[in-house]
Amino acid sequence: MIAQLLGESLRALRANRLRTGLTMLGIIIGVAAVIVMLAVGQGAQFMVSSAIASMGSNLLVILSGASTSGGARMGFGTVPTLTAADAAAIAELPRVSAAVPAIPETAQIVYGPSNWSTSVIGTTPGFLDIRAWPLAEGASFTEADLRSGGRVVLLGRTTASNLFGPTSPLGKTIRIKSSPFLVVGVLAAKGQSLDGRDQDDVAIIPLTTAQRKVFGNPFPGTVRFILAQARSQDVMANAEREIGDLLRQRHRIRAGQEDDFTVRNLTALAEAAAASTRIMSIMLGSIASVSLLVGGIGIMNIMLVSVTERTREIGIRLAVGARRQDILWQFLLEALIISLAGSVIGVALGVGATRGLAAALEMPTVITAWSVGLSFAVAAAVGIFFGFYPARKAADLSPIEALRYQ
Amino acid sequence: MPALIRLARIVKRYVIYGQEAQPVLQGIDLIIERGEFVAIMGASGSGKSTLMNILGCLDRPSGGDYVLDGRNISDLEPDQLAAVRSRLIGFVFQSFNLLPRLDVVDNVALPLLYAGVAHRERRRRADAMLHRVGLTEYATRFPNQLSGGQQQRVAIARALVNGPSLLLADEPTGNLDSETSRDIMALFADLNRDENITLVLVTHELDIANYARRLIRLRDGRVVEDRTMDRSP
After folding, report:
1. Which end of chain A is more exposed for a tag (fewer CB within 10 A), N or C?
2. Distance from CA of B58 to the nearest CA of A (A)
3. Which residues have CB under 8 Å from B170's CB, separation 6+?
4. How much is the average pLDDT of A384-394?
5. What torsion, rounded to 10 degrees, do the Cα atoms A28, A30, A33, A37 define?
6. B102: which chain A residues are within 8 Å (Cβ-Cβ)?
7. Which residues of A touch B93 (CB under 8 A)?
């Protein structure tokens, strides 16, 4: 029966092409907007999750404590209290798989006529493992380099291309703060960090070299921070507590005294960033759904006009034996056809617009079957919801009143 | 075989602005046998249209019993009434009431859609009915391409396509010139004589009523005259 009524509905829609098209346009725009907005939102989510993946997993960062100078509290690391020995001790903890000390400092790097200011990090070879950072060329410096304070350097992708352009920097000698360093490796590109910094704008040297030969340091033997990796996601809180206990013991801090270090859970911070992008994504989707809602109201509006215009037709159909549900279905199907056809075209338009946007603005966008399915389902629901009231109104007409209608 | 239509003490009141108006039908008792050709006459406001609506199951009486084809239908729900209309009743209206967007054959086939007949069979029966009213070559025209008389023939074909027991015609010649009116009335008389279709006709023209074999006159919601007439040639 519904299949038979479908023919009646299609005929009515064809008879009013312009009106059908304009009503459909509301749904088309709504669905396309939802698709584009979800694609942009999910693109942002994808960018954040890849930034998180590039950071390394289950990371804890241990910073030196804050000093107080004339009543003004300075930032973390102003009193360097951490040492490489602390890092080695932390690495021995049962719930920690690795720990590396690091000293970052900004320095000018020179190669021939080019020079570049970048972040030079003094650390141990384990740093690359913890950050899950592979080499694109060459090899990492070794424990031997660390012991001897060798003048070797690994360049980040951005630093390398700024100093050397397209040529390979391997085997070349650069100067960091006027000390010569041999380039032994180039790191693979990592992209942006969560706060938007270029992680590839970096140069990595052995910790001992940094401490003794490059950076002048009023507190010899100290490091700025220690990066520790917990054995798994589940033990992060325990690892954090173990590190705290260990450092208090090593630094002889009695109960009630303020710690001279801080332990931070980087993964938790990353998850917070991911959550805020997810919220942004939901917001974008919700705003776009409003236009879908407006499209639905357009359907309701036009269906109400249509019911009024066709009152006499409804009366005739009732007189020749149509039941109320036949009338209901005929009008509901009209609304459904508009919304479903509109959403098919809207999906096509939305996918096209997303591609265009991605190409024109170089924005990361992600279209998933899920987002297409969702906008499709919402459009169908909108059709049923806003089509039902007019259809019900048509079905409830009294045959006599409807036949008398001029 | 029981009478096709048996009306007992049929009353119809309308409630207007919360007040009960004078009843439009004030206790109609009427029996119409199968194969009869009845004309109902009366001035405006006599209640003849209301009686037609009740006979056609478009409206329900406020009181009394209506037995159609052996079944009491006074208390049926709207969808049950629709089923009765679909199976037993065909309508012909003064203003033809064809659907302008459907071509002639689809208009004729419309009642079959709601009777659940498959598409091919609908087409076959509609074509047969168009042949019966002499409009076979107009099947794919649209109503506005036909003359008034042709449109009314299409409407008659539509009323008959379900094989109804009762054909109700409300002023069927009211919009037609006198020659076309005679053609349409001749068609009704043929259908009644050859196919034994029960016909109830509302009119206010005596020469149209003269085609019928029984005349019922209403005044102020009551039957004031009910007589059998000699068959006009």
Report:
1. C
2. 6
3. B49, B52, B91, B92, B93, B94, B202
4. 93
5. -140
6. 11
7. 403
Q: Which residues of A touch B114 (CB under 8 A)?
A: 317, 320-323, 326
CA-only gyration radius of chain A, Å: 33
Q: Mutate which of A17, A320, A323, A396 to disrupt the B interface (most B C-beta within 10 Å)?
A: A320
Contact between chains at B114 and A317 (C-beta distance less than 8 A)? yes
Q: Which residue range(s) make up the domain with A295?
A: 2-52+277-404
My answer on whether A286 and A253 are in the same domain is no
- For chain B, the domains span 35-60+77-228
As separate numbers, helices (DSSP H) first and strands (DSSP E) second, chain B gives 7, 12
pLDDT reported for residue B233: 47
**Interchain contact, A400 vs B59, CB within 8 Å:** yes
- Chain A residues inside the 8 Å CB shell of B79: 323-325
Lowest mean pLDDT among A279-283, A294-298, A359-363, A386-390: A359-363
Backbone angles phi, psi at B165, to 5 degrees: -85, -25
Q: Quote the ipTM score.
A: 0.93
Query: Hey, CA dihedral for B124, B130, B135, B138, is it positive or negative?
Result: negative
A252 in the same domain as A105: yes
Q: Mean pLDDT, to the nearest integer, of A153-172?
A: 90
Q: Say if residue A47 is in the same domain as residue A109.
A: no
Whether A32 contacts A282, CB under 8 Å: no
Element housing A189 (H / E): none
A321:B114 CB<8 A: yes
Q: What mean pLDDT comes out for the span B4-9?
A: 92
What was the pLDDT predicted at B231?
A: 58
Look at the domain B35-60+77-228 and name its fold.
Rossmann fold (3.40.50)
pLDDT tens, B64-99? 999 998 889 888 888 899 999 999 999 999 999 999
**Strand, coil or helix: A264:** strand
Is A346 a residue whose pLDDT tops 90? yes
* Whole-prediction pTM: 0.74
Residues A262 and A63: beta-carbon distance below 8 Å: yes
Are residues A138 and A225 in contact, defined by beta-carbon separation less than 8 angstroms?
A: no
A77 has a pLDDT exceeding 60: no
- Identify the residue with better confidence: B42 or A195: B42
Question: Could you give the percent of chain B with pLDDT greater than 90?
Answer: 67
H-helix or E-strand spanning residue B27: strand B25-32
Taking the C-alpha atoms of A242, A243, A244 and A245 in order, what is their torsion angle to the nearest 10 degrees?
50
User: Is A332 found in the same domain as A196?
Assistant: no
Q: What phi and psi values does residue A253 have, to the nearest 5 degrees?
A: -100, 120
Interval A92-131: pLDDT, tens: 999 998 999 998 888 899 998 888 899 999 999 889 888 8
Q: Which amino acid is at B51?
A: L
Q: Across the strands, what pairs with B216? A: B40, B226
Q: What share of chain A is helix, strand, coil (3-state, %, to 5)?
A: 55, 20, 25
- Is residue A281 predicted with pLDDT exceeding 90? no
pLDDT tier at B166, thresholds 50, 70, 90: very high
B162–chain A nearest CA distance, Å: 9
Alpha carbon of B79: minimum distance to chain A alpha carbons (Å): 5
φ, ψ (nearest 5 deg) of residue B77: -75, 160
